[in-house]
Amino acid sequence: MARTKNRYRKSEVTDKTSELKRYSAGIYIRLSKERTEACRNKSQSLENQEKLARTFAKQHGLTVVKCYTDYEYSGTNFMRPAFQEMMDDIKKGVINCILIRDLSRLGRDYIEMGRLIDKVFPFLGVRFISINDNLDTLSGLKEKKSFEVEIKNLVNDMYSKDISKKVTASHIQKASEGYFISGFAPYGYKLDKQKLGNKLKIDLTVKPILDKVFELFLTGYSSYKVSDWLNENNIATPTSYRQTGELYRRIDDTKLWSNTNLRRMIRNQVYTGDLVQRKSNKQLSPDDYIHFNNAHESYISRKDYETILELIANRKITKKYDYSRTPNRYRGLLYLKGSYRQMSREYQKSKSKKNCEGHFYYRDYILNSNANRKSVCIRENVLDRIIITIIQAEMAKIGKVDELLSSLENKYEAYIQLLQSKIVKHKQHIVSLRMEISDLYASYSLLRDSRDDYISQKLEKNRKIETLIQEIDQYEDRLKAVDEKYNRQVAWLNTLSKNHQSPVLSADLLNALIERIEIDENRQISVTFLCQIGSDGNA
Fold it and tell me: What pairs with residue 326 in β-bridges?
């Protein structure tokens, strides 16, 4: 009996070794943006991290499939591109083992690190190895080792917060010395990288355009007219210029200057040569902002800057009308055809002496074939009449609501029963396969059948079980989707039937029925309903 027990023990050891070799490993390496060049050339380097991991993998019979590299990414940010790619590959089954130099490379957030090691990786069936920490989840996390991991994660978390404080302190120091601390230079400037920090210098490509903009404002042009001038001359917006480096708008560039964004840009004191920094931190008050005068070359004098601000303020005052502001019922619904930007709602004062009341209208701009901006407008009361007509036409198209609801219910119940019967059959099949696996094991134990045959048949049946489980999940997801769709259709039909004759379009009604309203340059309107139901009852 002793010899038999030893023989089987030897076989088990061999199996563990072969199982170990079947791991497909991914190496994850990271270098923080906080690191200096000196540190990058030493033990913290990406090359050394990868070399250490590959040596470990070779010594322990692991097959390295891929190396994931995040360069200059903070450990507190888990939306790193390479880290996200690695997690996707885990879900796809590309890798089932992660190799890192130490825990700090994976991340420096205490809570998130604990969640990954204790919950996520075990759930995904991933073996996790931290080489320098002597941590391998294949052997399990003992209480002592688990405590050590928690302590290290906590230390890494504290280190990250300490680094953040030091970076903030460094930024404050540089800002107080007149250095520019933001990542992107304002429109019209470039970053001049110096030894102690960044300075701003005038972008000579943009300078003629920006000089003209300030000139137009000082001569009395409104922000509307200046933005029109920029669009008519095909000048790329600051965002487009930063992305492409081209001053003039490309053929495929649909971004236009808006008066709102232009006013926001002009109000920036940076164009006077002064810096006001840390304004983006919403937790700070204006007293905490860091001011530095004459930090760089200016576009305009402080006197001209104050003049422009005064002109903008006075123009806004004259535009204010004495009218009762009503809610925008079409908020989030009305767009120019093909546009992602909502049409703006504006008020037009009546020019008639008999009728003092004005009207609301919706407006946006569209580029014509000559790349000129064309205004597209529609009155709110005209839009209301058109939308009511379209809703009534939709009601007439679908016919009697009671009959349609009955048809929808029958189809819904039939489909639900079909899916449920498939789920039941799949579950029965799984039970049957598991019983077959048990019979296989009994046969192997009692009759000493071939071990290879036993393993092969077991794997095949387990694969079938996994496939059936996945299909059950899909059926259950489909059940949920069908249920949600049916409830949405019923609610939509009931809303439509109750309000199709209503002369008033409330915001609640519009949002209950309509997903999107589009208007083209000829003021032709198309409506996309939240539910599209034909006469046969199908969505």
Answer: none
CA 240/CA 512 separation, integer angstroms: 37
In degrees and rounded to multiples of 5, residue 285 shows phi and psi of -90, 165
- CATH says 189-318 is which class? alpha beta
Closest CA to 248 of 263, 230, 236: 236
**pTM exceeding the 0.90 threshold for the entire prediction:** no
Instruction: Provide the 8-state DSSP code for 177.
Output: T
C-alpha angle 106/107/112, rounded to 5°?
115
Between the alpha carbon of residue 240 and those of residues 15, 41, 244, 248, 497, the distances in Å are 60, 37, 6, 9, 47
Name residues whose C-beta falls within 8 Å of residue 129's C-beta, 6 or more positions apart in sequence: 56, 97, 98, 99, 100, 135, 136, 137, 138
CB atoms within 10 A of CB 437: 15
CA distance 351 to 357: 9
| DSSP H or E segment with residue 295 | none
> What DSSP line would sit under 433-458, residue for residue?
HHHHHHHHHHHHHHH---HHHHHHHH
- Any bridge partners for residue 374, and if so which? 366
Checking 3-7 for CB contacts under 8 A at 24+ apart, the result is none
Domain spanning 18-166, CATH architecture: 3-Layer(aba) Sandwich (3.40)
Per-residue pLDDT tens digits of the chain, which is 539 residues long: 444 444 334 334 434 444 444 789 999 998 875 544 444 444 457 888 888 899 899 888 899 999 999 887 876 778 888 999 998 898 888 999 999 988 878 876 656 777 787 778 887 888 989 888 778 888 765 444 444 445 454 455 555 444 455 555 565 677 667 788 677 888 989 888 888 788 888 899 999 999 999 999 888 888 888 988 998 888 999 988 988 888 998 887 878 888 888 888 888 888 988 887 766 666 666 776 778 888 888 898 989 889 988 888 877 544 444 455 678 888 888 888 877 778 888 887 766 655 556 778 888 877 665 556 677 888 888 888 888 888 777 777 666 666 667 767 777 788 888 888 888 888 888 888 888 877 776 666 555 556 677 777 888 888 888 888 888 888 888 888 877 777 777 777 777 666 655 556 777 777 777 888 888 888 888 888 777 664 444 44
Which SS3 state, helix, strand or coil, does residue 76 take? coil
Domain extents in the chain: 18-166, 189-318, 326-427+464-539
